[in-house]
Design goal:
Length: 234
């Protein structure tokens, strides 16, 4: 099997639980560290799937690699190679396929409930799960590209996830580990304080206190999503 290409856009926003999931199933993957200067591949053909992680930038920023990634995503979809996006990654997928990314009404940072849509497609991805507490760290949101089926929503962000066939885009983070959360809280402490007026932003202390209790269910949800996603691997 060709490896899954996992794209990292910031040093602290790596594959996290996704890497643990793939390693436990001996599924090969290759890290493409955009933040470290790795080049965006010209084609998706050498990979069994593409996975895009988060990042602090906007997909609307004037960064050369963003346009290159959009081309790669469209190439993967055209070649029936499954694409998976987390937060920034989901926004990249949405923009590449014709959706728009713009400012969300409020920032979402920390643990927050998301509701699973009542549809056959949502049940195919989430099973009997009706809602769960996801991890959030975003100030922008995407619209659904043509043909996308909505999967998730939250009180503060209407579009938290969509699917087109074997392709899955998430606004929220399901890939988190305790180490990642601690790192983000340290690096992003000033951002949390600055956005404290948002009803969807929790203080760092509250985020960290809830982590041990929340992570097991988040990993269960992530494992189900990843298990379905890998069935489409080339």
């Amino acid at each position: 099997m060709n490896p899954i290409a996992i794209f990292r856009h910031a040093p602290t926003e790596g594959p996290g639980y996704l890497a643990e999931f793939l390693d436990s199933r001996r599924i090969p993957w290759q890290l493409i560290a955009i933040d470290a200067g790795d080049a965006v591949p010209d084609s998706a053909e050498g990979y069994s799937g593409l996975a895009f992680m988060g990042g602090p930038m906007s997909v609307n920023d004037d960064l050369t690699w963003i346009a290159q990634v959009e081309v790669l995503i469209r190439d993967a979809v055209a070649c029936d190679i499954p694409v998976l996006g987390h937060c920034l990654g989901g926004q990249l997928m949405s923009k590449a396929l014709g959706g728009k990314v713009s400012r969300n009404p409020v920032k979402e940072i920390g643990w927050g409930e998301v509701a699973v849509d009542d549809s056959d497609t949502a049940r195919a991805w989430f099973g009997d799960t009706k809602k769960f507490n996801a991890f959030h760290w975003h100030g922008e949101t995407f619209t659904l590209p043509q043909g996308a089926i909505p999967l998730l929503s939250s009180a503060h962000c209407v579009n938290q996830g969509w699917a087109i066939g074997k392709h899955l885009a998430l606004q929220c983070h399901v890939e988190m580990t305790a180490e990642m959360i601690a790192s983000w809280c340290e690096v992003g402490a000033d951002e949390v304080v600055a956005a404290g007026c948002s009803p969807a932003v929790q203080p760092v202390s509250g985020i960290l206190q809830r982590t041990a209790a929340e992570l097991p269910q988040l990993h269960e949800v992530a494992a189900r999503l990843y298990l379905r996603w890998i069935t489409g691997l080339r």
